[in-house]
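User:
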Amino acid sequence: MSSNSVSKLTEQTGVRSEFNIIATLVQTPKLRQLEILHNQLISIDAKGFILSIHPEDSPEAKVVLSQSTQPPVKLPEGAFLTPTFVDLHFHAPQFLYLGTGLHLPLMQWLDQYAYKAEEGLDADPDLAEKCYARLAERLIEAGTGAVLAFGTIKAETK
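Assistant: Predicted structure:
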């Protein structure tokens, strides 16, 4: 993207960078490939969406910085950013018994743990709320940024 393209995008959409970070990015674009990108300018809009990523010394980065109302935040030496994890199939009630019954075949495990836990959450909306709040904290702590979560049968405790 050229400097002119960055300016035109801002003009056309009215979206401006609200926050800029200069950091090292570490990612794995494909299996068995590690990519380390030093000194990257990450532009973020008011809603928290990434607008652009450019090398800090590129013409595009200079345009973004010239249009910014505040200086960029620079991560310290040795720090880096990585993409978030996405969990595309997650049964939230199973958080209650995480790591239990690993010795059991699936159907026995479901009978002994899963169905009982879901019934318990359906019977106690307060427990469900506490369980799901703690689960959300743990997911964020682990770097999970998005989940497709399944709840219980009752609408009040999903």
